[in-house]
Structure formats: C-alpha cells, structure tokens
Amino acid sequence: MPAPVFLHGRTVRLEPLAEHHVEGLAVAASDDRGDHAFIPVPSGLEAAERYVAEALAAQAAGRALPFATVGAADGLVVGATRFCELDYWQGPVIWPPAPRGPLGDPLTATPDAAEIGGTWLSARAQGTGINTEAKLLMLRHAFETWGVRRVSIRADARNTRSRAAIERLGAVLDGVHRAHTRGLDGMVRGTAFYSILDDEWPQVRTRLEQRVAASPAADGGRPLVSA
C-alpha cells in the first residue's frame, strides 16, 4: 500500500483522511446537498464518522488512499477524494484479469494503475477551481511519483455535470457499461469509464497547469473563475 502523503497546491491541499476531519466533512456535506444525488456523501456527524471509518478500513486493507480536500486559504474542509482500485502488474499473468496486491513489502509498493474516485465538494467549493487543482495534484503524484501507466475515473452515466468535469480534465471516454450497477437512488444505472494514459499525461498536465495558472484566486485570493 502506498504511504499516505500530503499534496499541496496554491488553492487546495489534500490531507490524508483522518478522524479529526469528521466534523469538517459533516459541515461541508451539509452545504446545499442538491448536487449530491449521484455521489455517496455523508449526511450528519454520525454518517461522517462512518464515512471516515470505512475509508480508513479500505486504506488499511490496501484498497484505497483517501484524502480530505482542504481550502488552502482558510484551512476549511470542503470535501473528499481518494485513490482506489490500486492495481499491481508484477509477477505472472493471471486470468481472469483483476486488481491485485503488490509483491514484496506493501509499504514501499507503488501501483501500476489506479483510479481517482469518491470525489465530492461542498456547494461553496464548486466552480472555484479547487477540483481542477486537486486533480492536477493527484494525477501528478500518480504519474510522476508512482509511475503508473493509467489513471481511471468513472461516473454515473446520468451525472452529466461530473462527466463534463472529467472530460475537461482531458480524460478519454473508454465506454459506458450499460446496466452496470445500482445507483444511489436505487435505479439500475450505467457507468461511464474514462482514463488518462502515461503517454497522454504531458499534454493533459500542460492543459491543467494553464487552467490553474489562469485562475485569479491563485494570486491574491480573488475568486476563481474556472471549475
């Protein structure tokens, strides 16, 4: 399991998710829940406690690396995100293909592929550019520190807002798995799968860095203009 890390940007920092983030997550999640129909977001303090406990259990099991999303200017928690579906390609080929753990010491392992998921933001943080810089920090860490070959991102096929945000990152649509699973509303849903490959990363990075640099809030704390 890759070791937890702090990822610092100009408008946002990603902190390893911990119990002390519970109250901040509960407050952030209560801020206009209208955009959370397709995303599992805790509602209330007890739900936030369970959310953090389950995320830390997934981390302990080697399945995820969760973060609290924190505004750099005021230090307030504005959401959460994580690396998940960590896959290691060392050793013999297995069939059928499935995510598997590392060979050797898991504390020093780095994955060959990963997914960014479980991302949600409070209403006040949406449209501020925080999501763009957070994704830049995570993608940079995945491709340049871990050296992964692929980063995947998925969304409920009905969630047009999330899909548009993923496409603005420069991710490529791999396809939609029809009738893939049950959504949060109980309906059977399709899932849109996107990915960025290592040879696509330099161009994606340039676009994201330009978007972050163009944000007025990165200079002087003025409001950001892009999401």
UniProtKB/TrEMBL annotation:
Which parts form a coiled-coil structure per UniProt? Answer: none
In this chain the N-acetyltransferase domain maps to 12-171
Q: Which domain of life is it from?
A: Bacteria
One Pfam family it belongs to: Acetyltransf_3
InterPro entries, sorted = Acyl_CoA_acyltransferase (IPR016181), GNAT_dom (IPR000182)
Q: What is this protein called?
A: GNAT family N-acetyltransferase
- Originating species: Streptomyces silvisoli
